[in-house]
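Slide 14.
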Amino acid sequence: MGWLFKRSKKWYVGYYQNGRRVHKVVGTSKRLAGDVLKDIEGKQVRGELMDIREIKSINFDDFALQYLERFGVNKAESTRAHDQIKVDKHLIPFFGKRPLKQITAKDIEEYKAHRAACRQKNGKQIQKSTVNRELDLLKSLLARAVEWGYLKSSPSQGVRKFRIDEKEPVFLTLAQGAIVLQAATGQMRGFIAVGINAGLRKGEMFSLVWDDLDFERKELRVRKSKGKTFRVIPMNAALIDILGRHPRHIRSPYVFHNHDGTPWHDVRKGFEAALKTAGVRRIRIHDMRHTFVSNLVMQGVDLNAVKKLAGHQDITTTMKYAHLAPGHLKDSVERLTWKSEDLDVGQASHAAP
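Slide 15: predicted structure.
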């Protein structure tokens, strides 16, 4: 929408073009100014109005690589690695050398449908949450293209992600956790202890160094976390005892290390072997974090305290576990007390049906 205004007996038209305010003098006639404004607005709708800035031309594949180089530095190393895989394996093979400014919302919808129909190596269909993460990356990429002068506007606007049914977190009970700790040996015992007693993410555990552990203050510091935030987690007696006997590498600062001192990277097989030995159902490494949060809530710990311990950026993430709080729902419905003695017969007969 544009506007008219008068200054020093002359009429001007004003409008926005690519986020910038433009003013043009028309003359002394308000009617003429109105006609000019209508013409400008019509040209904007039809895309005929000349752009204030020159839109640079670039193919999708070239811009995607430029995005990873320029914008990727703002992200965590693990996130950059995952973005690189999404770009190389999925986005570039689909959009290829297509000029960036020719990509439409329809193209993005087709990509969404294409990926949702794909199957993994094991034959299972790609999860919708996986496609949503790829769409998040694509939307971020196109938003940067607008900022850097390659697009007038992002074609991803209006493209919706898949709706995901909320699933109940998978976790071990306190009894199951104790059994797994007893069955685990070596570094894996310490790894599981940190997972269920401190709730660290997998990457946070892999990057954990001995300087992050303060046995005198009984504190564990998470320095390399999601969102580049810093948090301190108190260590309970069980965790202090296990880490106090944890095997150390003579030259490596990492708590969980390989023979050459490098940090652990993929210990899924060893983790699953410990679960099998304990006779406990198979869970993911990340489910140890769910175990930590779920059992805190079940023990009646305040949700705000749980949020800080878990390092959640938003309380809504913590609220997903609220149903586990003892008596959380039962206490709520018990407050509905219907007392017939509070209403006499005359009032009851005039009550609404």
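Speaker note: Residues 3-46 form one domain.
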